[in-house]
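Anyone up for a design puzzle?
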């Protein structure tokens, strides 16, 4: 998948781009409006035991999404052909930035025309929107801060590295920075509420983008240095004491090495190290974002999450974007930013399972706002929705494809959309499982009802066309047990065998039907027998096929 050349048409030439600047007076009207009751069918997160579901239009909703490249949504013109691409890939949700610099080009004067256009076009395609607030942070930088902020660094001070060199990063240790970001975000939330409260096209908000710190693990501006020598806030220490047995191991060992102190400065409690610098910075970033989230939710209470640029294993704080909501500092974020609903990984590293496990280990639901748009992303979608009760999947720069109609992710989304009512219905009882297979992986194994299932790559069958290839595509599937001996299996490139778990009994197939769901009603197609199920030996979805099969099993 190659990234298409970024094309931004000149803004001056676009009539649509002449955005009316709203006056502060209109904002005040919005403020009054915001006091009205919010509708009860708001998009929201619903916790059900260990499971969290995203509810949209009062029904559980799986985000089959894609995130736009950073600059695409800054031009109506550029976006025009993008919408049909998104439609062809069967997205139900688009992740799109809101750029602070374009939304508030003059202090206190807001221009929402890009947001309006996004929402309007998404509605035409019956698509939902997750808005990404490119505010004070974008990938550890502040490149989306408006010019009036960038050029007044005395009023809006920056982070300093340890040599006192200014960075193009706003420091979180400054009230002006926080107030400016917060005011703009609140104005955005007012606007969304005003135009979208009835239709709920916007279903979630990402607050900032990959907040973090580079090139050092913390900033060394004066206010930060002062805070660093102050006691660790009681709010954090109380959280750690309350969760003493569940604190992430790295953080626990730092705290333990210093005697599990319940008071003291950052270095007294956690020791002197880059990790302590990162913990300190994470706390202050969390407090900054929490205040923004609180202010935004007070206006319009949409689910709000924050995304993380993952730390490359083996790299030190300061070498990777530090202090974001990373697994090793997630407790700091939870303590400091309790208003954030979800901590979300942007997955650009290969080990999807490793990162998904880390992000789900402390009752945080898996929500993937960005994943590398590459071969195998289709199989990964089946895996995460089946294995993690994932709420969102979204390849990055989704519009970069030249052939949307051929994209495997579009085919996977078509299937996932059809079975999403089954996934969300059965996932809370543990009856949904997901598998990801590659050339060197062991087969997946699972026991469901009275059957033991072995899930393997389709090429493992000796006679498969691609079995002799050097590289095998990633394949995956989702298996849903809907009644004793009755399953729906959807995916690509898998072969599944069943054995009975009852002593002296064998398992056989009563029927395997390929088919589709139309408005949640099953429409059977081919009866898959003979060569298609290897004369009753297994369920098979070939590599390159994306299908749903309804499987009835019995014992004899
Ligand atoms: C992750 C960021 O969140 C995106 O905005 C974009 O910069 C991608 N990285 C680029 O790979």
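Challenge accepted. My sequence:
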């Amino acid at each position: 998948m190659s990234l298409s050349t970024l094309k931004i048409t000149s803004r001056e030439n676009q009539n649509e781009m002449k955005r009316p600047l709203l006056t502060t007076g209109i904002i005040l009207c919005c403020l009054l409006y915001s006091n009205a009751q919010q509708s009860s069918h708001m998009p929201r997160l619903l916790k059900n035991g260990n499971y969290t579901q995203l509810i949209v239009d009062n029904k559980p909703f799986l985000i089959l999404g894609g995130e736009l490249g950073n600059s695409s949504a800054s031009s109506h013109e550029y976006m025009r052909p993008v919408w049909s691409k998104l439609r062809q890939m069967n997205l139900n949700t688009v992740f799109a930035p809101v750029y602070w610099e374009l939304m508030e080009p003059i202090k206190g004067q807001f221009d929402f025309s890009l947001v309006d256009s996004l929402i309007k076009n998404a509605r035409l395609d019956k698509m939902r929107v997750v808005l990404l607030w490119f505010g004070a942070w974008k990938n550890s930088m502040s490149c989306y801060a408006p010019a009036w902020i960038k050029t007044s660094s005395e009023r809006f001070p920056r982070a300093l590295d340890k040599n006192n060199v200014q960075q193009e990063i706003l420091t979180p240790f400054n009230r002006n920075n926080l107030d400016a970001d917060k005011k703009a975000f609140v104005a955005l939330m007012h606007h969304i509420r005003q135009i979208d409260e009835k239709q709920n096209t916007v279903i979630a908000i990402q607050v900032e983008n990959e907040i973090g710190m580079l090139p050092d693990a913390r900033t060394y501006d004066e206010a930060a240095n002062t805070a660093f020598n102050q006691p660790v806030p009681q709010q954090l220490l109380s959280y750690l004491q309350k969760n003493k047995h569940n604190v992430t191991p790295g953080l626990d060992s730092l705290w333990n090495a210093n005697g599990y102190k319940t008071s003291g400065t950052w270095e007294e409690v956690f020791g002197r190290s880059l990790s302590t610098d990162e913990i300190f910075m994470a706390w202050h970033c969390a407090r900054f974002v929490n205040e923004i989230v609180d202010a935004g939710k007070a206006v319009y209470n949409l689910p709000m999450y924050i995304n993380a640029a993952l730390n490359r294993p083996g790299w030190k704080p300061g070498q990777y974007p530090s202090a974001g909501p990373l697994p090793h500092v997630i407790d700091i974020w939870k303590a400091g930013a309790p208003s954030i609903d979800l901590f979300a990984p942007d997955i650009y590293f290969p080990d999807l399972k490793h990162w998904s496990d880390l992000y789900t280990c402390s009752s945080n639901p898996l929500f993937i706002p960005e994943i590398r748009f590459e071969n195998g992303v289709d199989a990964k979608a089946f895996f995460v929705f089946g294995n993690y009760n994932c709420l969102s999947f979204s390849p990055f720069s989704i519009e970069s494809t030249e052939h949307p109609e051929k994209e495997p992710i579009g085919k996977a989304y078509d299937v996932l959309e059809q079975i999403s009512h089954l996934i969300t219905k059965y996932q809370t009882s543990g009856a949904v499982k997901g598998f990801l297979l590659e050339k060197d992986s062991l087969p997946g194994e699972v026991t469901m009802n009275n059957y033991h299932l072995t899930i393997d790559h389709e090429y493992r069958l000796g006679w498969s066309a691609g079995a002799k290839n050097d590289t095998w595509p990633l394949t995956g599937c989702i298996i849903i047990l809907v009644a004793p001996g009755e399953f729906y299996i959807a995916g690509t490139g898998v072969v599944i065998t069943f054995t009975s778990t009852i002593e002296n009994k064998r398992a056989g197939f009563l029927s395997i039907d390929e088919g589709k769901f139309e408005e949640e009603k099953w429409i059977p197609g081919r009866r898959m027998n003979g060569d298609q199920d290897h004369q009753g030996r297994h369920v098979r979805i070939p590599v390159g096929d994306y299908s749903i099969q309804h499987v009835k099993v019995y014992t004899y």
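A detail worth pointing out: The longest strand covers residues 507-518.
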